[in-house]
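Extended Data, panel c. Modelled sequence:
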Amino acid sequence: MNFKQNNIPDFTSSFPQGYNRNMEFIDISKKDAVNTALLEWFASAKRDLPFRTERDPYKIWISEIMAQQTRIDTLLSYFERFTRLFPDVKALDAASEDEVLKAWEGLGYYSRARNLKKAASEIVGAGRFPETAAELKKLPGIGPYTAGAVASIAFGQKAAAVDGNVLRVMSRIYGSDRDIADLKTRRLLENEIEATMPEETGDYNESLMELGALICSPKSPKCMICPVRDLCSACMEGLTEELPVKTAKKKPRVVRQRGYIVIRNGKLLLEKRPEGVLLTGMYGLPLIENDSSDQDQKTALANLSEGAETPPVLLGTSRHIFTHIIWETEVYLIQADQPDHKSNIDRPDRVAEDQTEFADRIAAFSADQLDHLALPTAFKKMLALYDGFNSAD
């Protein structure tokens, strides 16, 4: 089934010779009217956001990375705090990774913060901020959408910034029944947007983002106040609930595991998570999957509990949902006062990122030290069970 609107007069005879008249997503017979309506609406209706007050590529970049998994109204306080601590790319480069992760605490998806730090080092090393989407995509953590957003908004480059919001908005406006979960659809739309976008590239990309955020929502869109209502194929044909077409995501995989709150000599033992796992490089409770066959890990945990007066105590179960994985964790408390002779235990700074042995990734933290440590929400939920255990005694 093709929802494309066909009853609009053909104005393409006036287009320059060689212009692509056979686009598969965008209807070029109405693209000028759509673009004009979007720009006029955005000029009068755009939200007053701190990263819109100036065309600072650094702040635009930070805001776009934060917005990948966070609503704008939620990220504002984080953005203001982060840019106050690290006001420019040189300050971000000069900061330690732990300082950056602590400033990111609460936003989740910590790989974004680590990639910001890595990219800042590359930008400072190059001596300039990349201006094109092609250059920006070479930096850690920057994909086609972020590259297009920064290049168009900060530098006026003709670059598309296509995310889920833009795919939904454009699918409805142009009546496309293409599957927006298909990478081919995204690439097609990126190419066609870049071929048809107006000179005001940044405002145009932001108008599409803003329309998707404020009006053209996934459910119950506010079509009556939409600036492109009279041009929208989905609205005219009553297909706003059917569009966009999107194949269902796979259900998240459930990981059942045990987590250990180990208190030794008044300090909490935490593991610095290795490469290739969720929350790489972050500190968290030692975890063992229920079906794990890692004998080294089990032996190390047995050593950590050496000196405990009682067996591990089950505090409860914690559940945390990531994008593709659900953690269901039985949380156990181990209290041991016997000193540990491993050099890393009382020296968190000696836990190197490249250490592969489980026992060598363990370090002890006092309550004061924990206040300065970025702990992922999943582990905070587990530790909350320990607080409840104490209050019940």
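The two ends are 65 Å apart (CA to CA). This feature is highlighted in the accompanying rendering.
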